Every structure is written in C-alpha cells, then in structure tokens.
Amino acid sequence: MSNHFSAANLKSPGDDARLDLTDLFVFAAPDDPGQTVLIMNACPFTKGDGFHPGAVYRFNIDTDGDAVADVAFSFTFSAPADGRQSATAYYATGADARTREPRGQVLIQGTPVGLDAAANIFTIALQAPNDMLGPGPGTGTWITTSVRRDGALVPMDREGNPSFNPILNPNTIKDQFNATDPADDVTNYLQPLAHTLEHHGYPPGEATAAAHTLLPDILHYDRTRPAHYPNGRVMTDDVFSTRMIFMVHGHATPQNIGPHDDLTTAFPFLGPPHP
C-alpha cells in the first residue's frame, strides 16, 4: 500500500490528512466472479481520530468511456464520539452520480465503523454485484474526497492510477489537479505530463503517447481478464516499481517491494491494523 500526501503541501491552512487518498484497488471477488471488490485507503498515519465527518468519500465509476461518472458509491461519517463513529453509504446512478453530494439509494445507515487506535490507515471496502456497476464488463474507477465548506462540497483529493499525482505532477499543479475532474485531464494535464516524461528520457512523440496511457486519470478494469495493474489493481501488485519504471522510460529495475504479509483471502482482504 502507498503512504503519501498527494496535495502540494498538507501543512497549509485547510489541509487535513483525513482527506488524503492513498490507494484504489479494483478486482473480482475471489469467491464470486459475479461481484467486484472496490477498496479505497485514506488518511496515512491515521492523523485524526476517524474519518472526516464533514467529508464525502466516493467511488466514481464510468461505464461508457467518457470519463464522467455513471455510478457512484458515496460514504459519509458521523462525528467521532467516545472513540466511535458511524457510516452511511449511498448508491447513485445517472445525474445523481455526477454531483459531489451524497445522493441516491441509501445502502446502509448509521453502521458502526471499526476504529482502532493502533490503525495506520483508514479503509473503505465494498463488494458489489457486477450489475450495479454498469451493463458491460469494462469500467473506469476513480476515488474522491470532498469536504463541506460554507454549505458547498469542495474537492480535496482524487486518485485513479496509483501514485500519479504524487510522483508525476509537479507541486505547482497538484492542488489544481485534485480540484478538477478526469473529463478535463487531457486538456489540462497532457502537456505538463508529457514535458515531465521528456525530462526523464522519453522522445517528444513517445512522451505524448505515454501520457495518453495515464490520462484521464482513471483506473480501468475489464473483468473478463485477470485483475493486475493496469487492468484494475490487486493488493499484491508492485505499483511503485511500475510507476518508477514508467517515469524513467524503462531505465530502472523493479524495487522488489513485496505486499503486506497479513492480507486475507476473504472480504475485506486487508490485514488487521498495525501498531
């Protein structure tokens, strides 16, 4: 798993580590190919005493390739009290999936959240029937956090491909990237990304072509094929090596960063909290 801060400077006013997204995983449920697992990790080093109660944590799913959400699973949380917190989950389609507001069908309400003072990251794990994710076998997923300020939800972070914004975007555009949507990625970020890749050994034309493979910043998954990044992502994928090798035009070797040794084979698949 990744531990990173994807804003330009999380020490600036208004930044909150609870809103920092670190990982997105998408893969078929091992015991039921008719269901897909979606996992987001947030809040590295567990800064804060729970999920942000003023935030919306969301899985955004594009089913038709236009980089706009057609399906959304949104999660909101109560304010922590006496070491406890509860969650409400929403399932939205169509226009309700294209707003940052938590709308649609309420799937769970007031469900207790598992909090441990020894945790080192917060996780939202979801296993959903494939027909809830769209009519075809292919999806594009990205995760977002938004926080309510003066009555409106303000975008704070997003992630599709692992370690895209933290590693490949310069600090000068990280916050802007987090505040925009994948549908605008090619227009806004193709040239900066291609420029970065040229500085790391890519010829100009090849740099542009490589940038197109990551933009829009959406994690694509075809469930007719095994899930391994970049087709979805499982928790044993060494995505750090993949990203570093990509960045330097293949002039690097795998870092041999192994997965956690306490992963489980059943939902929610992540191991117990670490002290």
Q: Which structural category do the helix and sheet elements fall into?
A: alpha+beta
* Order of helix and strand elements from N to C terminus: EEEEEEEEEHHHHEH
Taken together, the total number of domains comes to: 1
Spans of at least 5 consecutive residues with low confidence: none
Average of pLDDT: 91
The Rg value, from CA coordinates, equals 18 Å
User: What's the total number of strands?
Assistant: 10
Please describe the structure with a list of short key phrases separated by commas or semicolons.
three-stranded antiparallel β-sheet, 275 residues, 10 strands, globular, seven-stranded antiparallel β-sheet
Q: How is this structure best described in words?
A:
Helices cover 16% and strands 30% of the residues. The chain is an alpha+beta fold. It has one domain. Strands 3, 4, 5, 6, 8, 9 and 10 form a seven-stranded antiparallel beta sheet that branches. The chain has a three-stranded antiparallel beta sheet with strand order 1-2-7, with no helix packed on it. β1 and β2 form a beta hairpin. α3 (185-198) crosses α4. It is globular. The two termini are 16 Å apart.
What's the quick description here?
The chain has helices at residues 164-168, 171-178, 185-198, 204-212, 239-247, and strands at 21-29, 32-42, 55-62, 71-77, 86-93, 105-112, 122-129, 138-149, 152-159, 219-222. It has 275 residues and is α+β, with helices and mostly antiparallel strands. The strands form two sheets. Strands 3, 4, 5, 6, 8, 9 and 10 form a seven-stranded antiparallel sheet that branches. A three-stranded antiparallel sheet has the order 1-2-7, with no helix packed on it.
